[in-house]
Amino acid sequence: MLPAIGDKSLRWSTLQQLLEAEVAVEQGDPGLDRRLTVASHLYAAWTEKGTCPAALAERFVMEFMARNKPVIIQGLTEDWRACKEWVRPDGSPDLAFMQRNFGDAVIWATDTSSQDAGYGGGARQRMTLRDYVTWWKRYKAGKVQGLLYLKDWHFADEFPQYHAYRLPVYFHSDWLNDYFDHRRLFVYLGPKGSFTPLHADVLRSYSWSTNVCGRKRWQMLPPRHTHLLFDSFKRQMAPSFNVPDDSSTGRFPNLARARELMIECIQEPGETIFVPSGWHHCVENLEDTLSINHNWLNAHNVHWALALLQGERTDAVAAIEDCRSACSPSEFESLNA
Ligand SMILES: O=C(O)CCC(=O)C(=O)O
Ligand SMILES: [Fe+2]
Fold first, then answer.
1. Of all atoms in ligand 1, which is nearest to the CA of residue 209?
2. pLDDT recorded at residue 79
């Protein structure tokens, strides 16, 4: 049996079953590679069949979370304050409202004018939201260069009284944000064309992301194909799926194959996407877009985080191996702790 929703006990036998289930699903479901399931039926089932929210969430857990499959869910935002107060009647972000109410907030803005910069590569600057909105207006008037994307704004922590959204029942079991100091609850705001380069999420966590307004294009690769994203030395990852093929250097020799295997979807306003663990993805805002997202871990994906940390520890130990003879065993252990 898979763990029940909200079951926070970590049982190794269960994790092993989940790992086996994931492999079986990945091997036995080739159609998954080419599609995202638009799971509006999940929400409809709630009202049509009188299914209670917890049962619906359980179905989401079984069909998508436990199987590490992406999905788009509609209809989770109807009572969100952000959807009422942060959006203008024409569907664009209400920047005047944001500036009036949150103008003093200090945010990070990343220049995403080059899609080749790679994850973490674009120049980042600290500014107030007020200055960001001023920049936005000048950008729209064609007066400034660059394409600044406001990312990873810890809005819920900075404005705890505001309650911009309600955590969807699907995503309740959340060890990362319930127990860790650095919570991962974010707001993103960017003009049309702003971009997040290819990456897998922190600690191989899940993420969900909801468009308060605007549209995004997601390109995502199942984890078993991750090796296709690297250069010939297996060191550097391509900045996106869309790097021009350069057959003379063969820099990313398997990227064309990755493009064949990736799935692509357009996320419309009000839709929520579930990004499973270890799926590399890049995201482009097709319109001026405001979104809310969380990263999280629970019993279904914590093995991804564990494997990542164990791998990094092994690499760190290998990197300092030459110091071993100069230290006592306990000093060496403390070096790689
Ligand atoms: O919306 C974006 O630009 C990136 C979001 C993302 O990478 C995520 O939610 O995992
Ligand atoms: Fe991400």
1. 9
2. 87
Are the C-beta atoms of 94 and 136 separated by less than 8 Å? no
State if residue 209 touches ligand 1 by the CB under 6 angstroms criterion.
yes
Measured in angstroms, how far is the CA atom of residue 137 from the centroid of ligand 1? Answer: 24
The band of 80, judged by pLDDT with boundaries at 50, 70 and 90, is very high
Cβ(188) – ligand 1 distance below 6 Å: yes
Pick the atom of ligand 1 nearest to 284's CA. 3
Whether ligand 1 lies within 6 angstroms of the CB of 272 is answered as no
Ligand 1 atom 10 nearest Cα: 207
Query: Does the beta carbon of 267 sit less than 6 angstroms from any atom of ligand 1?
Result: no
DSSP state at residue 113: S
Residue 130 lies in a domain: yes
How far apart, in whole angstroms, are the C-alpha atoms of residue 147 and residue 127? 15
Helix/strand/coil percent split, the chain, to 5? 40, 20, 40
Q: What is the pLDDT of residue 19?
A: 42
Summary mean pLDDT of the chain: 82
Distance CA 242, CA 320 (A): 37
37-61 confidence digits (pLDDT tens): 444 445 554 444 556 667 777 778 8
Ligand 2 center from residue 251 Cα (angstroms): 24
List the CATH number of the domain containing 137. 2.60.120.650
Report DSSP letters for 35-88, one per residue: --EETHHHHHHHHHS---HHHHHHHHIIIIITTT--EEE-S--TT-HHHHHSB-
Domain membership of residue 28 (yes or no) is yes
Q: Is 293 in the pocket of ligand 1 (CB under 6 A)?
A: yes
Give kind and range of the element (H or E) at residue 256. Answer: helix 255-261
**Residue-number span of the structural domain to which 44 is assigned:** 12-300
pLDDT value for 337: 60
